[in-house]
Each structure stands twice: as C-alpha cells, then as structure tokens.
C-alpha cells in the first residue's frame, strides 16, 4: 500500500499547476501596520545610561553592550538573527531610550545593515522612505562608516 502512494505522489502535485497562486504580491498601496506591530529597535543615545538591564532581560541573548566613541560606557547592539521581537528589552529600559520604530517594510540593500547599533528615532524620521537609504558601509578596523544615498556620512568608532 505504501509503495503505491509513493508512486502517485508526483502526480498529486501536478494537479495544482493550473490553479491560481495563493501568494500575495507586494501591494502598490502601502497598508498601515497593526497597532501592536513591533519593528526594529531605535535608541536615543542621550537617554541611555548603559545600565545593561536590556542585555540581562533579553531571553534570546540578542543584545550586548558595545562601547562607541560618543558614549564610553556602551550602547546596546542587537543581533536581529537572534531577536524574537518580544519587547521585553523595551519594557525593561528604565529611561525609555530603547524603543521600537513604526516602519514595517524593510528593503535591505546591504546585509550588514542589520548588525548596526540601533539609530535615534529622530534619525529614522528624517528619512521618509520605508527603509534606511544606505548606499555603502565601509568597515576599517574599529571604525565603520555609513554613507547614505543623499551623500551624508556617519562614522561609528568602536572602542
């Protein structure tokens, strides 16, 4: 009996060739996200006190504090490959420095973009595109330069 089912399995799949696909194409009109949607993290460096509560509260161990030149104590860097978007780090932040942004369409142009330190909400609102318009990322030793499409350049220096 099992042998007959195996022989027929390719023919069972063929009957679906002429059906209309279920895949939804990208809509031309961008829909609003759900009210409880959680996007990527934003970080207000001025509010961050480097208390490491976000790092300790993350159940996926996706957050680690990284020192940068602007702030000697460190700021959180989020590994989005591990992040479960559970929002525990945002709820645990005592100063409200770590937040979620409201964008929900991400068009990654460069894979390294996902390993960047979360940007300030003001910086995210400056670019009104559904993604950060990064043209190029240059890594040299402990420095990382981000060149935007409009020509502006931002430098991060890891200590």
Describe this structure in words.
The protein is of the alpha+beta class and 159 residues long. It has 4 helices and 7 strands. A 3-stranded antiparallel beta sheet has the order 5-6-7, with no helix packed on it. It has a two-stranded antiparallel ribbon with strand order 1-4. Strands 2-3 form a two-stranded antiparallel sheet. A hairpin with an 8-residue loop joins β2 (63-66) and β3. The longest helix has 13 residues, at 2-14. It is extended and about 65 Å long. The termini are far apart. The model has no long low-confidence stretch (mean pLDDT 75).
Strand content: 15-25%
How large is the radius of gyration?
21 Å
Number of separate strands: 7
User: What is the helix tally?
Assistant: 4
Instruction: Give the helix level as a range of percent.
Output: 10-25%
What distance separates the N and C termini? 67 Å
Question: What number is the mean pLDDT?
Answer: 75
Shape designation = extended
Biggest sheet strand line-up? 5-6-7
Element-level helix/strand string: HEHEEHEHEEE
> Tell me, what is the CATH class of the domain at 33-126?
Alpha Beta
CATH topology of the domain at 33-126: Alpha-Beta Plaits
Main β-sheet: number of strands, strand sense, barrel status?
Answer: 3 strands, antiparallel
- Helix-and-strand structural type: alpha+beta
User: What are the segments in which pLDDT stays under 50 over at least 5 consecutive residues?
Assistant: none
Question: CATH architecture of the domain at 33-126, please?
Answer: 2-Layer Sandwich
């Amino acid at each position: 009996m099992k042998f007959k089912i195996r022989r027929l399995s390719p023919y069972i799949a063929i009957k679906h060739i002429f059906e209309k696909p279920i895949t939804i194409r990208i809509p031309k009109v961008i829909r609003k996200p759900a009210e409880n949607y959680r996007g990527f993290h934003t970080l207000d460096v001025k509010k961050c006190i480097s208390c490491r509560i976000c790092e300790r509260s993350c159940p996926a161990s996706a957050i680690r504090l990284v020192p940068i030149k602007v702030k000697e104590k460190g700021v959180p860097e989020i590994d989005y490959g591990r992040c479960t978007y559970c929002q525990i780090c945002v709820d645990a932040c005592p100063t409200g420095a770590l937040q979620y942004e409201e964008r929900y369409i991400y068009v990654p142009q460069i894979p390294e973009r996902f390993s960047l330190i979360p940007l300030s909400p003001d910086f995210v609102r400056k670019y009104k595109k559904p993604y950060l318009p990064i043209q190029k990322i240059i890594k040299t030793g402990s420095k990382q330069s981000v060149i935007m499409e409009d020509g502006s350049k931002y430098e991060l220096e890891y200590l």
